[in-house]
Each structure stands twice: as structure tokens, then as C-alpha cells.
Amino acid sequence: MMQGKAVLALWIDIDPAVRDECDDWYINRHIADRIAVPGWRRVRRFQGVQDAQPATLALYEVQEPEDLVSDGYLRLQRNVEATDIRMRAMFHNVVRDTFKVRHSSGRGEGGLMLSLRFRTDTANISDEAVALAVTDEIIPALAALHGIVAIHLLQQAPEFREIHDGHRKSGSDDARAHWVLLVEATRGDYAETAGKLLRCWPDGKVLGLSDAEVGLYDLMYAV
């Protein structure tokens, strides 16, 4: 289960030359600062497997959507140090957005995370219809698969991303994501089975699943 009603999510590639240094910075400074902000409940960081692109996924789970733009967090956005700026300059192919949690269910946390970023044709289907189709049809089918332990549906909340961009020193050109479906599994082959089900879903073209950006990620650590 997600530990809150909203999420800041990032998919990034990190320059291999600074990968170890960046990992240390993430653990000892970046994530430590954020998890200390009231309302910021959990941070999980994943490393891509099977050539996932981008190669790193980070999920910041907050209690309420408004916690994404709290004074404590925006202060961190404004007050960056030289190391923060240098590390951010080593990020490439960044997808970053703020989301509300439309659905979250499960019996625990899986070591593998299947991530699908997808966009629907809003001229043909409304956001509410997408949410209904995913929660009433797709998620039960996924939950019935062996080794699937949690499933989450995230919907873009652009109003919070806009506030972030107004305070950040860089990154306003980061790519965005409309919908995200996250499937937690105990093993990679179980996650792959879930991915095959989604790619072959009968209404996948209408929902945007057929053209989704798909990646499989291994949990590195959680705070």
C-alpha cells in the first residue's frame, strides 16, 4: 500500500561516473532531508533491470496532496547547495511529476516494481473512465496473478508540479507523465507476466496502455 494520498515520482538516468557518489548523496543528504519534512512518509528508490529506461525510479510518498507543496519542502527546493546542483547536473532523461493516488491495494511490498507510464486520448475517453476501467477491470486481473503483492494507480496532479517548478533552480523542462500504473511483484518473471497481460489488454489502445513506457525496477532501499 502507498503510505499516503499523493506521490512525487522521478525516472532518471545518472551519469555512471558519479553513480556511487550520487548514491551516497541520496542516502545521506537528499532523502534524509525530505523524509524529515512533516507529511513525507516514505521514499523508495529502485534500479532498473532488463535495460529499463530511464534506469532509476524514485517514489516519494506523502500523507496529503498539499504536503507536496508544504513550506518545509519548498524551502528545500529553494535552498540548494553546490553538491545538490552538481548532482542534479548529472541527471539525464528525467521524467518528473506529482500525482494523486487514485488506487492503492496489496498485501505488502514487492522487491520488483513494474512501472507503466501511459497517456490516454482525452478526446475519446475521460480521466474518470480511465480510472474506472483500471480499478474495476485491470487491477483485479493483475491481483489474481501469482506473485503480485501490490498495485497502485497514480494520476497526474499538474498544479503541484507547477509550484515546484516555480521554486526549483533547474528542471522545469523535465518530461511529465499523465497516468502511472505500478505493479509490485516478488520476482521478475511474475512482473513480466503482469506486463504481458497489460500489453495485450483488449482496450489497451483506447486506454493508452499499448503505447506505455514500461520499465522493471529492483528495490535498492526504502526510508
Poorly predicted sequence stretches spanning 5 or more consecutive residues: none
Whole-angstrom Rg: 17 Å
Helix content: 25-40%
For the largest sheet, list the strands in their spatial order: 1-3-2-8-5-7-6-4
Give the CATH topology: Alpha-Beta Plaits
> How much of the sequence is in beta strands?
25-35%
- Counting DSSP E segments of at least 2 residues, the number of strands comes to 8
Class by alpha and beta content: alpha+beta
What best-fitting shape do the alpha-carbon axes yield? globular
Number of domains: 1
Name the CATH class: Alpha Beta
**How far apart are the termini?**
15 Å
Largest sheet, in brief, is:
8 strands, antiparallel, barrel
Q: Give the name of the CATH architecture.
A: 2-Layer Sandwich
Helix/strand order: EHEEHHEEHEHEHHE
Task: Compute the average pLDDT.
Answer: 96
**Number of H- or I-type helical stretches:** 7
Report on the architecture of this protein.
The protein has one domain (6-222): Alpha-Beta Plaits (2-Layer Sandwich). The protein has an eight-stranded antiparallel barrel, surrounded by five helices. With 223 residues, it is α+β, with helices and mostly antiparallel strands. The chain has seven helices and eight strands; from the N terminus they run βαββααββαβαβααβ. It is globular, with a radius of gyration of 17 Å.
